[in-house]
Amino acid sequence: MRVATFAAPLSRDGPGLLVRDLVANEDSQIAAIVAVVDRVNPDVLLLTDFDFDAGGVGMSLFSDSLQVPYAYQFSLQPNAGVQTGLDVDGDGYTGDARDALGYGRFLGDGGMALFSRYPIHVDDITDLTNLRWRDVPNGTLPTWDGAAFPSEAVHNALPVSSSGHWIVPIDVGGEVITLLAYSATAPVFDGSENFNGLRNRDELRVWEAVLDGYKGTELSLPILLGNANADPFDGEGIRSGIANILSHPDLQDPAPRSRGASSAANQGHVGDPALDTANWPEDGPGNLRVSYVLPSHELTVTGAGVFWPAPNHPAAALLGGDGLAAGPHHLVWVDIETQRLR
């Protein structure tokens, strides 16, 4: 079983525009993303920047564009773009993208979409998307000069999840595997109060709590996957958040690597460049490891990788001359032995 996550840029500037582009079938970026998914051909795929529509039209269109469409699909409305009526970013105004429950220019902006070749136990899904930030075990809300930032009203209303936190059971040969799917805010674009840095770290703390039995949660062979927007060695953010997840005794880190990332190493970075999953400018954050697939320690991993071919590899053509045809993020995959699950 191949499980993958991909922060492919399938969000657009307004509601319905992704569906429009999928119907038109003329968008070169979508074509590149489809080509990458076809090449890797995962059995389970989480897309973490996919505009939500209530009817699931976009998901169906995307699936149908693949060589082998997915029989099972799932999505929920994300927090992105849900307006709070509050001044969430503390700029003195309300109603803009930063004043939503999660950053979003419109309802559903850049949500998540799950595709599977295995049945999804929809009735048994646990959605933690509305878990209040202040209720996260060991969470830390932002303050400024000793007071709640930006306000107590925001602290009382804001969920920790900027997009979504889903606990999704799937049936693999009669055995249940539990997907822990999410996408975190970037730990940047804030001030000294470190609003986004703290939120990014606490979005990971949700999974720490769940793995440790939060609210009696029972997990069968969990696999944590998604865009953590956090690198354990380089870039911005509170590194203890992702470090704690990578070292959690219930999970294992297959450390997916690629030759493309290795060949694009940034000077001054500390982490192993072969593990990077995002190709950002060197005068910005540089290349970082931000997307993860972390299986249960009880599962047997038979392979892992990042679709980032070396520049001289024929498959590199799928990413275009600049390597960015499918966006700056690269698909991360892990192969898991399923013989014991049958």
UniProtKB/TrEMBL annotation:
Gene3D superfamilies: Endonuclease/exonuclease/phosphatase
Pfam families (UniProt xref): Exo_endo_phos
GO molecular-function terms, A-Z: catalytic activity
Organism superkingdom: Bacteria
Region (Disordered) location: 249-282
InterPro entries: Endo/exonu/phosph_ase_sf, Endo/exonuclease/phosphatase
Listed Low complexity bias regions: 254-265
Protein name per Swiss-Prot or TrEMBL: Uncharacterized protein
Lineage: Bacteria, Pseudomonadati, Pseudomonadota, Alphaproteobacteria, Rhodobacterales
